[in-house]
């Protein structure tokens, strides 16, 4: 059996790569994918900790994180599509105003 | 053997995440993301979380990755990341952030919480998750349906073309 700390370490690495993606990329779609990467890394850590402590609550929590992630992606992509319709450009450097 | 499986899956996960970060074309990024999410589903399987592995494939690798691909095809953002970067100095912020997270990894690997003898394995996978979702977590479970309904209505209101 692989120790749970390996899973937690892998989760930290994946989370770091998600943060890196948010910091270095300028396409809002790729930034969104990086956010998904971070949520996913958190899920991995939750399952590992649940496994370590012998409880099922970790997995139940992951289920709720999945639901929130699905809602977040749907709304976020809708916002990005709407912004693109208004501006015809897609770069976070230019999206600095809240007005449409 | 299980360590070998974990090593292969971990390499795949980190490699696909790196591919997502480094490819300029967002459609390649979306496909790398799908690989990454499927790998994490396999990692869930190695931890005997069968229900979550199935949900991960259906929702993440199925619905969310496909939604990303659709959005990219609607938008067709071709050459948006060319030209000079106005926030070039800000890139160096990535270095301390990475350093902090590597320290975090080191702390996790040496932490006392995860040391010591492991607990006995969980009684049942899907059965136990379903039981806990519909007893202890019944109220959050119902709130989730309201959240998803709000998301559906919000998306339709946002993307509706005004005549």
Throw out a few tags for this protein.
heterodimer, A: 100 residues, mainly alpha, Helix Hairpins, 0% strand, B: 163 residues, Four Helix Bundle (Hemerythrin (Met), subunit A), 6 helices
Written description of the protein model:
The complex is a heterodimer of chains A (100) and B (163). Helices cover 78% and strands 0% of the residues of chain A. Chain A is an all-alpha fold and 100 residues long. Chain A has a single domain (4-87), classed as Orthogonal Bundle (Helix Hairpins), CATH 1.10.287.3510. In chain A, helix 1 packs antiparallel against helix 2 and helix 2 (28-53) packs antiparallel against helix 3. The model of chain A has no long low-confidence stretch (mean pLDDT 85). Chain B is an all-alpha fold. Chain B has two domains: 1-79, NADH-ubiquinone/plastoquinone oxidoreductase chain 6, subunit NuoJ (Four Helix Bundle (Hemerythrin (Met), subunit A)), CATH 1.20.120.1200; 123-163. In chain B, helix 1 (2-22) runs antiparallel to helix 2 (26-46) and helix 2 packs antiparallel against helix 3 (50-75). The longest helix of chain B is centred in the middle third of the chain and has 26 residues, at 50-75. Chain B starts with a helix and ends with a helix. The model of chain B has no long low-confidence stretch (mean pLDDT 82). At the A-B interface, helix 1, helix 2 and helix 3 of A face helix 1, helix 2, helix 3, helix 4 and helix 5 of B.
Quick overview:
Chain A has about 100 residues and is an all-alpha fold.
What does the secondary structure layout of this molecule look like, with pairings?
The complex is a heterodimer of chains A (100) and B (163).
Chain A: H1 4-24, H2 28-53, H3 57-87
Helix pairs in contact in A: 1-2, 2-3
Chain B: H1 2-22, H2 26-46, H3 50-75, H4 94-110, H5 126-133, H6 138-159
Helix pairs in contact in B: 1-2, 2-3
- CATH architecture label name of the largest domain in chain B: Up-down Bundle
Helix content of chain A: over 70%
The end-to-end span of chain B amounts to: 61 Å
Largest interface: A-B, 70 and 82 residues
Level-1 CATH class name of the largest domain in chain B:
Mainly Alpha
Q: In what range is the share of β-strand residues of chain B?
A: under 5%
Question: What characterizes the major β-sheet of chain B?
Answer: none
CATH architecture annotation name of chain A: Orthogonal Bundle
Assembly context of the chains? heterodimer
Number of helices of chain B: 6
Structural class of chain B: mainly alpha
Outline type of chain A: elongated
Shape of chain B: extended
**Which structural class do you get from the secondary structure elements of chain A?**
mainly alpha
| Topology of chain B as a string of helices (H) and strands (E) | HHHHHH
Radius of gyration of chain B: 21 Å
CATH topology of the largest domain in chain B: Four Helix Bundle (Hemerythrin (Met), subunit A)
């Amino acid at each position: 059996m692989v120790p749970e700390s390996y899973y937690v370490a892998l989760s930290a690495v994946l989370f770091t790569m998600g943060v890196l993606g948010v910091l270095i990329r300028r396409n809002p779609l790729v930034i969104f994918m990086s956010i998904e990467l971070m949520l996913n890394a958190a899920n991995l850590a939750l399952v590992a900790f649940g496994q370590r402590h012998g409880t099922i609550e970790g997995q139940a929590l992951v289920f709720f994180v999945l639901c929130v992630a699905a809602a977040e992606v749907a709304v976020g992509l809708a916002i990005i599509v709407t912004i693109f319709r208004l501006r015809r450009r897609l770069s976070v450097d230019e999206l600095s105003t809240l007005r449409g | 053997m299980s360590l070998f499986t974990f090593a292969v899956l971990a390499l795949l996960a980190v490699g696909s995440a790196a591919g997502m970060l480094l490819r300029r074309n967002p459609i390649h990024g979306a496909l790398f993301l799908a690989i990454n999410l499927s790998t994490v589903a396999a990692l869930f399987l190695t931890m005997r979380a069968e229900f979550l592995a199935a949900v991960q494939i259906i929702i993440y690798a199925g619905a969310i990755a496909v939604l990303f691909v659709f959005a990219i095809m609607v938008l067709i953002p071709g050459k948006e990341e060319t030209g000079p970067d106005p926030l070039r100095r800000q890139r160096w912020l990535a270095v301390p952030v990475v350093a902090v997270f590597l320290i975090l990894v080191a702390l996790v690997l040496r932490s006392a919480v995860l040391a010591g003898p492991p607990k006995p394995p969980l009684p049942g996978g899907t059965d136990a998750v379903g039981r806990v979702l519909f007893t202890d977590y019944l109220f959050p479970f119902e709130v989730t349906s309201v959240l998803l309904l709000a998301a559906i209505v919000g998306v339709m209101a946002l993307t509706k073309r005004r005549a």
